[in-house]
Amino acid sequence: MTVSGASVFRLALLGLLAWLLQLTVVSQITIFGVPADLTPLVVAFVGYIAGSTTGAVFGFALGMFVDLTPEHTLGVNSLVFTAVGYLAGRIRELRDPAHGLAPVVVGAAATAIAAVGFALLQFLLGVKAPVSLLLLRDTLMIVLLNTLIALPVYALVHRLLATFLPDDPRRRRRRAYTTRLSPLSRA
User: Fold this and answer.
1) What are 80-95's pLDDT values in tens digits?
2) What's the CA gap between 113 and 150, in Å, rounded?
3) Alpha-carbon distance 178 to 23, whole Å?
4) DSSP label at 95?
5) For residue 39, which of 88, 4, 1, 6 has the smallest C-alpha distance?
6) What's the pLDDT at 165?
7) Which CATH code of 1.10.1760.20, 1.10.579.10, 3.30.1050.10, 3.40.50.300 fits the domain covering 5-166?
8) Which of 39, 59, 162, 170 has the most CB atoms within 10 Å of its CB?
């Protein structure tokens, strides 16, 4: 799927806004002892709406923004968010889920993949970080919290992107038509 210039601008604005919102507001508010993490949700929903290639590129770009903050290892979030955006886009391209709660499952899976992927890459790179049951508890709480906010985040991302993305014929739903044999055709 190709993305127009207006869509690229919208995606860049969405990425910058999500990064700034996460950095300044969301990370300061803790629920269940952990802050929510908007970035994997936004990356997953861009991939889910726009496709795997757009999701991977958006994930890489947003990951680079996140990696620019001083407490992150350069490149780790870029790699993880690239995978998250690509996988969310592939889910949409392969399955085209029609259920209204599919974004909740995609958001929970994206958050879990991002958290586990980030922890695994940090461990493999030899970054000194405490590994204990608290890490598992925090990861589960972040997944739970992001699952609770997945639908509003999806609705916002969908509203911002749906009108600017080209119409994909694979995504159109077939309309049910009535025939004479259908009880709906009788007046």
Assistant:
1) 999 999 999 998 888 7
2) 15
3) 52
4) H
5) 88
6) 63
7) 1.10.1760.20
8) 59
